[in-house]
What does this fold into?
Amino acid sequence: NIIVNKQVEIIGSNAVVNGGGDAAFEIREENVKISGFNMSTNTSFVGGALEIYSSDNVEILNNNIETVSNVIGIWICGSNNACSRVNNLDIINNNIKINGVSTGIYADFSSPAHTSWLIQDNKIDSAGVNLELYDVKNVDVNNNTFYGNGNSVSVVYASEFSNISNADFLD
It folds into this structure.
């Protein structure tokens, strides 16, 4: 897996990154842009194909993400797992395919709340939950397409540790 611990822009031009039994990317620094990758996992583990830890000003753009079993597509750490909130996160124009019962994009519980997110133009296919956001305020969720089977859930938006406000969910 690739651990990003410097401020950097990484452009993949359709490069393949297979995390195997771990995340393909772990973002652990602020001001990071990841674009143009084909990310995957091939074994089951607790976590995501792309994981974000206590990092502000992150852009996840134009990627294909595919997981197996119970692995999340994009996992954002919160205070529930000893991380700081994530501010100014853009997740735009990604294709996320979950081959199992899990979540496409998951924001972990956080106090104070994560804030100022844009989730736009993504295609998410999961037999579990497509988009699961806990403790995120000032979030815009626009023009995303959610797929799944008859048992899947499109969106969960809830407050666990923080008061939340200013959420826009648009077609």
Observations:
- The CA atoms of residues 78 and 110 lie 5 Å apart.
- The first strand starts at residue 2 and ends at 4.
